[in-house]
Amino acid sequence: MISSAHAETPAALPNVIVILSDDVGWGDLGCYGATKTKTPNLDALAKEGLRFTDAHASAAVCTPTRYSMLTGEYSWRKTTVGLNKGVANADSPLLIPVGSTTLPSIMKKAGYRTAAIGKWHLGFGTTTPDYNKDLAPGPLEIGFDEFFGLPATNDRVPTVFVRDHCVVGLDPADPIRYTFDPKIAAADGMKKYAAGRDRIGFMSGGKAAWWKDESIADTFTHEVLGFIERNKEKPFFLYFATHDVHTPTIPNPRFVGITGLGNRADMLCELDWSVGEVMKTLERLGLSKNTLVLYSSDNGAAHTNEDSHLPNGHWRGKKSQLWEGGHRVPLIARWPGHIAPGSTSDDLVCLVDLAATAAAIVGQKLPDGAAPDSFNLLPTLLGQPEHLKRDSLVVMSGNGDLAIRQGGWKYIPDLDLVDGWQSGAKKPNQAAKPALYDLSTDKGETKNLLQEKPEIAKRMVDLLEKAQYAKSTRPLQQ
Ligand code: CA
Asked: Do domains 15-381 and 392-469 have the same CATH topology?
């Protein structure tokens, strides 16, 4: 149970909202030093709460990060493509085993009403899903009471919304056909063009259900506010996964041109508007004080410079890469009366830690083997100095290659693979080129200290191997 200054009179269980944006970099927000973007509502969260400076997504791309956040497990422990490399397509079966302990199932067990609204990207069904039929198992089978969102990404087919187990507004006379195989598409007359532009994959049909890119944020926000309103009398857990600011970057016209930096930066305004609507609604319903709001991003930005705005700040690299810019993300936590306003933490933390943190908030002991790589962040959130903190963190590139952090040290096993999707092919028997960086003095990861600090490099190699061979890195006491 929550321990704090109010321990003698425990507050009612707090509502918990996790807002996870898509491809927003460490340097994209004003509270992380951006001067050209406009993110007043996210900046207010930081002003009223705690801002982490060394927070990470477990992977530098979407699907594995989301898997890790919802399960508390490093995704690379699994052998499925989409978890140990790459991302899921919309033809993926559900990637989280039904019945496993998850972030939402922990909250549901504690009596919370739970919802996932927004981008899913973790598959449906037990085989290739047929979007004309019932899509179970999906979010509802891994702990969410409600789901509304898009199946994979906003640049992939099928370009439709799903509510619970069904596509919304589908005309049975115009069934959805889709594939990611160009040969099948050519044979069946399926097109890359869907809902107004070319997408990843091919589809035909389902036209009555197609989304409009410029309205996706409004639709998600409307759903989110409705969920909060319907559940104002009971504790709720809400996972709001925005499509902002993933490509295609098509903000609603009312945000176009605000920053002068282009559509992606204007989409940050749209994201910030959604956050503001959530906060206004919490305030109006009297829920602002007893709601923990967490904001983060699923990986770094895909761009490193937009007219001198640096989406990943001073960190090197971008989405899919093992450089810090690929996986170091903003993380903000606001919880009035519990989290000190305007505070910062330099602790090494990861979105994989949210599962154990949620269990601590609701006073639940994690079953053996559950959330195996998740560390409880609640003491850090509450400003309690003495506790079992994460000592090291393994991060994964878009290609499934790993690197490890410990303190300010970063070890990358092979520089030929550090650029993720931009890495060239490795020749057979080509030797690895390991690298060791000291981020405390070298934020740009430019000076390889492997030769100068062989004992630290050896320690990092051992740590990485230990994490890989162990089934769990979570302290047994948590
Ligand atoms: Ca992403």
From this structure: no
